[in-house]
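Page 37, top half.
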Amino acid sequence: VKTMLTPGRSLAVIVSIFLAMFAVFSPVFFGSPLGWKFSPTRNRTIIMQLGVDNQAEQITYGLSNVCGYAAFFVVILCTGILITSLKRKAKWREGVTGIASAGKDGEAPAGGKTNANNVSRDTKIIKLVVIISSVFIGSYFPSTVVFLAATAMPDFSPTGEYRNLFFVACSFTYNLEAINSSVNILIYLNMSSKYKSTFDAMFCKGDNSPGIGAKQ
C-alpha cells in the first residue's frame, strides 16, 4: 500500500477529485449570473443571483447524483474486495496456526501465537473498514436522495415552490456530512491501537495521564 499510495500520487488524486467536483457544480453557477438587485429582507441593493438556469441546475443535480452513487459503488466494491482478501488471509493463518499447534509433544511453536495475533488484527481491520464505510454511506446517502428528488422535481430547488423544504433537507444532510467528518477520528482512536499511540505521541507529549481510550 505504501508503494502505491505515495504522497505525490495521493496529492494528484485529491487535486483531481477537487477539479472533477468543481466541474460538476460549475454549470449551476455559470448559468446564474450575479448582479445588483434590491433585497426586501435587507432593505438595500446587494449583489446576488439574478436568476437560475433551470437546465443548468438539473444538469448539476444529475451529475451530482452520478458522482454520489459512483462513490458508493466504489466504496462498497473496494470494501468487499478488502474484506474478502483479509478473510482469506485470516483463514489461511488459522490453518497455519492449527497445524503449528499440533507440534511435537503437543507444544505449539512460537510462530503459532504470532499467527493468532495476526488473525485477531485482521478481524479488527475488517470491523474498522466496515464501520468507516457504513458511516460514510449512511452520512452521504441522504444527500444523494435530496439531489435525486431535486432532479425529478424542478420545484424542489432553492428557487422552486418547495424551496423551504429543500433548505430544511439540505440542512439535515449537511449536518450528516459534518458528523461523518467528525466521528472518524473517534472511530480510529477506539479501534486502531497504532493510530491511538501515534495520536498520543503527537498531542499528549509530557502528559503523565493515560492516553485516550487507555484502560484504567
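Page 37, bottom half:
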Amino acid sequence: MRKQADAARESGDTVSALARLNDAAQRDPKNPEVLAEMAMIYESIQNFDRSADTWRRVQEIGPSAGPLYELADMKLKTGVPAAPGPATGSALDAGKPASALDASSVRSTAEGVPAGSTLGISEVTVSETPDPDSETNLMLRIAVKKRPNAVIDHTKVKIQVFFYDTVGDNEIKLTDADVSYEWLTPNHDWANSNSETLAVTYIRPKSKGKSAESDLAAAAAAINPAKKGKPAKASPPPDGGSRKYLGYIVRIYYNDQLQDKRAEPNKLLTLFPAPFTAPPQ
C-alpha cells in the first residue's frame, strides 16, 4: 500500500496517494510515517485544516513516534505554513513553453535551515551559459547549510535533483537532457564549514533527437556526499513533441528524513510532493 502511494505521489497523483495512505492509516492508525506523509500532502495541496488534523494525530501518538512527534509538535505550535504562491510568468502558470532563463536567478532564506531540520537549502542559483552546440546549457548551484553546531554524518545525507521539461502541448515530464553533478566545495562533509555547494548541470544538445532509450540521459541526479562519481544514467522512454526546459525540484534528506525542498516554478512542489521519508536509491 505504501509503495503504491509513493508511486502515485511521485507521479503527481495526490488523490490516489491520499486514498492509498488513508487505507494504510485505517489498517494501522498509529503509524506515524503514514500519517506524516498524509499531512505533508495535504499541506502541499493547501488543505491546511486536514494537514493540521493529521499532524495532531501524529502528536497524539506521543514520543514513540520519534522525530515525527517533534515535527508534529512544531507544526502545530507554529502553524502549518501557507504554500508558496505561483511563480509569476512561469511556463506552468502561463501554459506556454519556458522561455530562456535570465543570466542568473537567486532564491535564499534568512537562515537556510527550516525549523525542526538539521540541514537546509540556503541558496539556489540558476545560470545559463551561451552554447552554440546546445539548445539549453544551464547550471544549478545548490548551497546546503547545516544548523549551527550540528555534527553531520555525511554518509546519511541524500540530495535529490529533478529537472522537468514541457513536452508537446505543455505536458510536464522528467527531462531526458544530459544531467551531471559535481561538488564545488572540496570536502562536502560539513566538518569545517556550515555550508557546502553542489553544482548540477542540464545540457540539451541541438543535435539531440529521437534517440534510442539507451542514449537518453539521466532524468534526475541523486547525490550522496559519501559516494564519488557521476549519477547513473536512467532511460526515460522516448516521446513525441519538442521539449523545453521548465524547472527543477531539489530535496534534501538526512537520516532518510526530509529536511528541505525547493522548486522553480513553485507549483512543481504541488504537482510532485516530496515524500517525508527518502525512497530507496
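Margin note: The helical segments are 2-10, 14-27, 32-44, 48-61, 67-78, 91-94, 268-271.
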